[in-house]
Write a structure and sequence with these properties.
Helix content is 34%, strand content 19%. With 750 residues, the protein is an alpha+beta fold. The chain has a 7-stranded mixed β-sheet with strand order 13-14-17-16-15-18-19, sandwiched between helices. Strands 4-1-7-5-6 form a 5-stranded mixed β-sheet, with helices on one face. A 5-stranded antiparallel β-sheet has the order 8-12-11-10-9. It is elongated. The protein starts with 5 loop residues before the first strand and ends in a 69-residue tail after the last helix.
């Protein structure tokens, strides 16, 4: 290309028209040829164009098509862009260049497609225009510039064709037909005027284009060729008000003969659906599209409706991006209003959000004073704009109610984030008691627990384990065989004694020796009652805190600060309600535990106790299988049935001994089931955090930390976390060959 000259065919004053295949063509206007080469400077090129078209070079935009791509326009804004265009042209001797004077361009809007940097696209659609509106006020065409510009000053969605207004689409006409009333109508701003004009055009079914659109005046005409409809508005002298000065309300265009471009912007649709979204947060994009089509005659596709919903949600809830920048302020406010709380967050090297940990003082105190040393760890997906995961540590109160201890928002569930979360948790709930965790063993959680809480007991979540067994067996066994093996697996896990575990394991072995080996090699000491050394009080699944995760599901689409505050509010209400409820209790144990104890006391009356001199007693009872003999050691709170150790409440055999020797059963109940412990759990309050989304300017609270949204967002929709299942989906089995995965009709056996 060295030394070769290219002829730039510079065109201006015409219109872009979208063809059926989505490509663009340029119709009308004037054209001039200018020679350029690799030595040409953009400033010289602009000056020559300005002389040709009588434009100001300072208010000029130059665009061109990529070779072979008539759908996207590239903007030339510097010398490198001009040289890049010459390189793209290659051996061609000419290049089409399109020139736009930005004097007539609406702020932040272009009707022409451009490169990714400008984020603007164009497409045209047929818009039938309804019968003309009568009455006219004069307008001077001298006020109209030569360059037509398309509609509102907002980034458009893809082109949305509208149908003629008929009986089914009267809502827009009924509501908006008088948003523009005529000359002398006043508005507070140009944006208000443009919005009113936008609605007016929808109600009356016509398309328009801007002729002048700046900070002093707006001139608009009907887009139909030759139609006299015009409107002119400008600032009212010595005020900030905008006033309609001239208007011609007559349309001479006729419906289907007019071909025009119409755009329903995402901001406009968002403003329409905002109130309904506020009342129904689960308003689906499909329903949005259906409602807009039914009420306004405008057809949206799914992605357009989804983007409009995001705009409306941001209008209602605030900016997701700004919420991350408020995190430093928000964390300080939590610690200020709830002293003793632990709130920390991390950012990456580029200042983007990484993770946030929250543990309220009331949660820390409540766990240490009144809850069992038993913690459930689990995670759930966040369906917010930037996605992520929520990690949570929950406990059980004396009534087996959910008691959240701490939670964290992280970018993904992995060993690094679990290790960080557990370290923060350890600093919050520092205790001398040996902790038991009920948690999954995957996603790095097994190693993280062993690293941070080296002396804890880790109980594998039984549902996660059963789900893994089911997946590993799938394809090898029929539905019925797998159902029996999963059932026997649960029986083995819950069996209190070794012989019960072994019987269930042998039952699995009778179906499949491979499945038996899987069970034996899956570390039963971490999940089977017969071997587990920690105290988990009959809790064997990590998703114990379902109520808490319901709160998360309600709040996870909010910006991060609002989501955390919603969870804080739910926890605050729960603490207050349970504190009030427990103030009415008059029993030593909480109501549900009192009921269990009384039930076992009634059963104990049918048992026979054989007295001895020490603390060990023999207890006999009759059942269908014959006489049952159990051994009770009251000094060590132990019974051979293992019910006392597994639950924390004395079993019927132990109660029979207490009744016989005149001791109180309440003295042998775990303190964690008493009304006093329940009240201690909820003795502290979580306090409100004011001004979460709109902080008051206070220099004393200024924090020199900038937090931007996460930089990496997985493509597509967020993946829902697959819940472990107890019921196995039935697998096809051929009745002809007995094979799996097909039926008799599709069987390939001869």
């Amino acid at each position: 290309m060295a030394g070769k000259k290219i002829i730039a065919i510079c065109q201006s004053g015409g219109d872009f028209v979208t063809n059926k295949d989505g490509s663009l063509s340029y119709n009308g206007g004037e054209a001039y040829a200018i020679d350029i080469d690799e030595q040409s400077k953009l400033s010289d090129f602009k000056s020559e164009i300005a002389d040709m078209f009588n434009f100001s070079s300072a208010n000029m935009s130059i665009k061109y098509f990529l070779p072979g791509n008539k759908k996207t326009l590239i903007t030339i804004s510097k010398d490198k862009d001009l040289q890049r265009m010459l390189n793209f042209v290659g051996e061609s001797s000419t290049v089409d260049v399109f020139v736009v004077s930005e004097e007539a361009t609406a702020p932040n809007f272009s009707n022409m497609p451009a490169s990714r940097s400008s984020r603007t696209t164009v497409s045209e659609a047929v818009v039938p225009v309804v019968a003309p509106v009568n009455a006219a006020v004069g307008i001077n065409d001298d006020d109209i510039d030569q360059l037509d510009m398309e509609m509102p000053n907002e980034t458009p969605l893809d082109c949305m064709p509208i149908n003629m207004i008929d009986g089914r689409h009267r809502k827009a006409a009924q509501v908006w037909e008088n948003t523009i009333t005529g000359v002398d109508q006043r508005f507070n701003s140009f944006n208000e005027f443009r919005e009113a004009l936008h609605k007016y055009s929808i109600a009356h079914g016509f398309a328009y284009r801007y002729k002048k659109n700046d900070s002093h005046r707006v001139t608009v005409k009907c887009k139909a060729q030759g139609c006299p409809w015009r409107i002119y508005a400008s600032r009212l002298s010595t005020t900030q008000l905008i006033c309609i000065k001239r208007m011609n309300t007559t349309h001479t265009c006729e419906g289907a003969a007019v071909k025009a471009g119409y755009r329903a912007t995402k901001g406009w649709v968002g403003s329409i659906i905002k109130e309904k979204l506020k009342a129904s947060p689960n308003y689906r994009p499909k329903d949005i599209a259906d409602d807009i089509k039914r009420e306004y005659g405008i057809q949206l596709n799914y992605s357009q409706a989804w983007r409009a919903k995001e705009i409306a949600r941001e209008q209602l809830q605030g900016s997701f991006k700004e919420a991350y920048n408020l995190l430093p302020f928000f964390c300080e406010k939590i610690k200020e209003t709830n002293p003793g709380s632990i709130v920390t967050f991390n950012t990456k090297d580029d200042s983007s959000f990484h993770r946030l940990f929250v543990s309220f003082h009331a949660s820390i105190t409540g766990f240490l004073q009144g809850c069992r040393p038993l913690i459930f760890l689990d995670s759930t997906t966040l369906n917010s704009k930037y996605q992520g995961m929520l990690l949570a540590a929950t406990a059980a109160d004396a009534e087996d109610g959910i008691f959240p201890i701490a939670f964290a928002v992280v970018d993904e569930e992995n060993e690094d984030n679990w290790t960080w979360f557990l370290r923060e948790l350890k600093s919050a709930v520092s205790t001398s008691s040996q902790l038991t965790f009920v948690a999954d063993f995957q996603n790095g959680l097994k190693r993280a627990l062993a690293d941070v809480f080296d002396k804890c007991y880790h109980s594998y979540c039984l549902r996660h384990l059963a789900d893994k067994l089911n997946r590993d067996l799938k394809g090898q066994f029929s539905h019925e065989a797998r159902r029996f093996m999963i059932k026997d697996f649960y029986t083995a896990a819950r069996a209190p004694r070794h012989e019960g575990f072994q019987r269930a394991a042998e039952s699995i072995k009778s179906i499949s020796p491979e499945a038996y080996d899987w069970v034996i090699q899956s570390e039963p000491e971490h999940w089977a009652n017969a071997f587990f050394g920690g105290a988990r009080y009959n809790h064997m699944i990590s998703s114990f805190g379902e109520e808490f995760y319901c709160w998360v599901s309600e709040a996870r689409e909010f910006p991060i600060t609002q989501m955390i505050d919603v969870l804080r509010g739910k926890m605050m209400e729960s603490i207050y309600k349970r504190r009030v409820d427990s103030s009415q209790w008059m029993t030593t144990l909480t109501p549900s535990n009192e009921e269990k104890l009384q039930k076992d006391t009634a059963m104990a009356r049918s048992l026979q106790v054989l007295l001895t001199e020490g603390s060990i007693f023999e207890v006999r009872g009759e059942c269908v299988e014959g006489t049952i003999v159990e051994v009770v050691d009251i000094d060590n709170w132990d019974c051979s049935c293992k019910g006392w150790q597994l639950t924390g409440l004395p079993c019927c055999h132990a109660i029979a001994v207490f009744e016989c020797i005149g001791r109180s059963s309440y003295d042998y109940c775990s303190r964690y089931f008493t009304t006093e412990s329940f009240r201690l759990t909820y003795s502290e309050s979580i306090h409100p955090v004011p001004n979460v989304d709109r902080p008051i300017k206070d220099e004393s609270l200024e924090i020199a930390v900038t937090v931007t949204p996460p930089t990496k967002r997985p493509p597509g929709r967020p993946k829902k976390k697959q819940e472990p299942i107890d019921l196995i989906k039935r697998q096809l089995q051929c009745s002809k060959c007995k094979g799996l995965g097909h039926n008799k009709k599709t069987c390939k056996e001869p």
